[in-house]
Amino acid sequence: MNELFTVHQFPASGNAAELPDEVREQVCAFAFKGHSHLGAEIMDAFPNLALVANYGVGYDTIDVAHAVSRGIQVTNTPDVLTNDVADLAVGMVLSLNRGIGGASDWVTSGQWGSAGAYPLQRTLSGASVGIAGLGRIGRAIGNRLQGFETDIHYYARSQKDTPGWTYHDSLVSLAATSDIFIVAVSGGPDTLEIISSEVIAAVGADGLLINIARGSTMDEEALITALQSKQIRGAALDVYNNEPNIDSRFMQLDNVLLQPHHSSGTIETRKKMGALQRDNLSAFFAGKPLITPVT
Ligand code: 8YV
Question: From ligand 1's centre to the CA of 162, what distance in Å?
C-alpha cells in the first residue's frame, strides 16, 4: 500500500482531530480494517472522503447510510474468504459434536489412564443441520455438511433453489428442527439479536449452536444463561459482542468451543482480502468502476 498510495495512519486513540487539518482535507479514501465502529463523526472529519474500502466481507460496523448520504462509496472483500469461513464452521461442528477438545485434554491430563474411556459423544451423519442465512457462506457450509450425510434445513428471507434442502420461514421453526444450528446471517441492524432467547430455547437440550456470523446477531445474555443451565448442549463461537474483551462468563463454561474471530485467518485468504481491498482503492484512484462495491 505504501508504495502505491500516500498513506496516513489513523490515530490509535480513534480521535481524527489528532491528524493535522491539511491531512484530513487531503484524505479521500479509507483502507478500513477491524471491527470498530466507523460512524458519521469520523467520516465527517474528512471533508473529501469518497471511498471506504473495507478489509472483510461484513461491513456492519460502517455507517453505510451516512456514507451514501455523503456520496461516499463502500467496498468489501466477498468470495475470497468464503471457503475458509465455511471450513472453520465445519471444523467447529465436528469438534464440538465429537468433543475433540475435551478428548485431547482427556489424554494430556492422564485421565485416559486413570479414569478410562472418554464419555461417548454424538454421531454427525443423519443429524439435522439448520443454517440461518443462505448467502455465499451459508451455502458453502451447507454444501460441505451435505457431504457428511446430514439433513440440511435453512432460514432465509426467501426460499432458494436448493434441491433437497428444507426451507423454514421462521428461525424458531429452524432451531426446533436442528440438532446443529449454525448462524451465518450478515450482521447489522436488520439482524440485531435475531437469535433471541426464544430461538435459543428452541435449539433445545440436545442441540448445538454455532455462530460464525456476528456477535450482534445473538442475545448473548440469553445464550450464556442457556449454556449455564444446559438448556442447550453446547455452543461453538467465533464471534461475540465486545471483541476481543468478551464476556468472561464464556470462559467458565464447560460446553463451549471458543475461537478468536479468525474464520478468514489463513495466510492465503488474508493475502487475497488485502489484494481485493488494494484493487478497489486502485480502481477508485484510476477513476475506474469499483470491483466489489456494496453501495
Ligand atoms: C474480518 C470478517 O474481516 O470478513 C469478515 O466480515 O469477519 C473477517 O474476515 C477479519 O477478521 C478482518 O477484520
Answer: 27
